[in-house]
Amino acid sequence: MRFARALGIVLLSLLAGCGDTDIAPMSPSMTTADVEPLVADRFVGDFETGNFDQWANCQNVVVRSAPCSSYHNPTGRMEVESAVVRQGRYAARFEVHQGDTPALLCCGARAEVSGEEATRSEEGDDRWYQWSTRFEHGFPADQGWTVLSQWHADEDGPPPLAVASGPTNVGMNRWGVVVSTWDAPGRPGPTYTPWSTDLVTDSWIDIKLHVKWSIHDEIGFIELWIGGVPQVFDADPCAGQTRCMVRTLMPRGGGTYFKQGYYRDPAISAPGVVFHDGFTAAKNEAALAPL
Hints:
Elements: E1 2-3, H1 5-15, E2 42-45, E3 57-59, E4 66-67, E5 78-81, E6 91-96, E7 109-114, E8 126-135, E9 146-153, E10 161-166, E11 171-184, E12 187-198, E13 205-212, E14 221-226, E15 229-230, E16 244-245, E17 256-264, E18 272-282
Antiparallel strand pairs: 1-12, 2-18, 3-4, 3-7, 5-6, 6-18, 7-17, 8-13, 8-18, 9-10, 9-17, 10-11, 11-12, 13-14, 14-15, 14-16
């Protein structure tokens, strides 16, 4: 499904200024033991520490933006728990209600973790990503836009690549992969949803992506596996292909870094809950941690 440029502009107007330049940088007291750098072949954010310490920053309605290592008093909005897990002993539960917009941040209600520099990708980087996501019963995907995992550019605006749900980005009660192309910072190109499917609740979904990061359509690409099965993209710009050739970086917009959780349109009225578990970012497929 291809979205018109006008829709990209509408979404940009919703999210403009919502970049993470206001997120606190890594605390000087944090070391490479606190955040595993991708230069060591992989970053693991599987919550098996029993908290959010593997991730650089946490954001929710209680904590506007702070190092996750200082966020050890979780609320029901965002917590590491052991009742619903895909692998290991722990998974993360993210809950968002209408009005859950962190103080001094615009645009959307959220509860998210961010990998920052440990998950950074630049022009020409080849990266693999794997994790599991689970939508709780009643998850609202019938209104507005929702972002579940995103590779955010250094510049403001909709992320060049995201896993999202809802009618604005994907479709009514559907989730999928959304690519927001850019001609330059502040100049959005076409927005695509090259793959989507019906949203099913109370079941773990194993997701794997292979991404070539580039500002060039003829170099950048995305490959997708769901439940270990390679997916054929079913819409523009790569319908019928297993490798979607498309620009994955914003020209003159720097690189990307990874965020995961639950970020959504402030107009969505119903509360929602999503779980994530087992995230790994790696330089090659063999380095991915098993689910």
